[in-house]
């Protein structure tokens, strides 16, 4: 039986189409798992505040809170049916409460509150759970990449610009570059907590309330850092969604760039890396294929994350700055998809990196012969002949052309090639020795000698990775602190409930 008239002056029930497209999606099982207990927590905090402020009597609060405790024991979903004719989840919960204690008792729960500030609060609480899960997984993924980097500090390879051989690097240095980008990505995600973890409860429909409420109290019991300072902003603000999704989109872009590199390097034409069988797929017709399955899906899902961000921007723009169902009802819709796709990206990238194999011999062999050491050869001429780098650059460019025209490898360069070209171009009698040339051409010595900040020398990359690990550790600590903040708030709420029940 429906207790009371939750539709106010509206006489007719919602149309079947309204139920199908607007109501059912808000009370389905997914929504119940995400929001049911957060509604219950909001009700507990609000009722405790009303009793503390003398707005409702202790015995009234006790009866309401006894039903709330019963709902808590139900778990992620209510044991009673959520009925669409009641329009939404909260009215279903209130209907259950009134059915238990009567309208004169249960009807007092909603004193000094609107659905608008309640919705806004529950939405932030729902997001907090998923947000902290993403943060934990993100840091775990960073640690996985860090481990791969430390295990491959000796993997010398050609770096690339424009997909052309550039200079020798190490795979560890490459991973360090990605981890630096991911640290910035994570910092953007982490910063959003400040805007997310503020409490709308007490803002009312938009104009506050004449009841003498304590918003600091309810914010604390719900694990928020503070109440939102303005009642209109309390119900109108959803910018934290845009901030989180924007940060997700930037992070997902980093994922795609890393995956594209691995995707190219996994081709037999490169053969630098091979993904594990567990994350690969064969062709249904071509048995030689080992397609890097997860890399393609990560890139695709990253685009979905960005698409969700853009869709949310479009829904929220040009909406009145107060409560409205366009921004506040439809606005968060794509956010849940973005969280799911972001989680998938992170976990797929982590499992891919855990099992990745490097063909170190082929990497260094390719680097020895694809002319990626030419910048260092030019440096060698500068040192040996005391000429400008631009002069040396020109000499080496002609050397490269000569080798390519004669179908020779970079490792075959010696004085017999360099000396005549230097003489012809600049009338220079080059004093460079074959030993110096071979040192300049050695990709391993080249990579290992770049010890300036940011370079590829093993000790320098180790320093970079040590710094990155400290940043990850600090991030992990903050996630634990925030998780404990929410857990401690629930403990305090339960303590106050039991204290109230004991004295009534």
UniProtKB/TrEMBL annotation:
Predominant place of localization: cytoplasm
Give start and end of each Fumarate lyase N-terminal domain: 49-307
- Which GO molecular function annotations are given, in alphabetical order? argininosuccinate lyase activity
Write out the entry's keywords from A to Z: Amino-acid biosynthesis, Arginine biosynthesis, Cytoplasm, Lyase
Cellular location of this protein? Cytoplasm
InterPro entries from the UniProt entry: Arg_succ_lyase_C (IPR029419), Argininosuccinate_lyase (IPR009049), Fumarase/histidase_N (IPR024083), Fumarate_lyase_fam (IPR000362), Fumarate_lyase_N (IPR022761), L-Aspartase-like (IPR008948)
Instruction: Output the superkingdom of the source species.
Output: Bacteria
Q: What is its EC number?
A: 4.3.2.1
UniProt-listed CDD domains:
Argininosuccinate_lyase
> Could you give one GO CC term from the UniProt record?
cytosol
For biological process, the GO terms are:
L-arginine biosynthetic process via ornithine
Q: Where is the Argininosuccinate lyase C-terminal domain?
A: 371-421
Q: Which reaction does it catalyse?
A: 2-(N(omega)-L-arginino)succinate = fumarate + L-arginine
Q: What class of enzyme is it?
A: lyase
Do the record's keywords include Transport?
Answer: no
Pathway the protein takes part in: Amino-acid biosynthesis; L-arginine biosynthesis; L-arginine from L-ornithine and carbamoyl phosphate: step 3/3
Task: Please give the family membership noted in the entry.
Answer: Belongs to the lyase 1 family. Argininosuccinate lyase subfamily.
Entry-linked HAMAP family: Arg_succ_lyase (MF_00006)
Entries under PANTHER family matching the protein: ARGININOSUCCINATE LYASE (PTHR43814)
Q: What is this protein called?
A: Argininosuccinate lyase
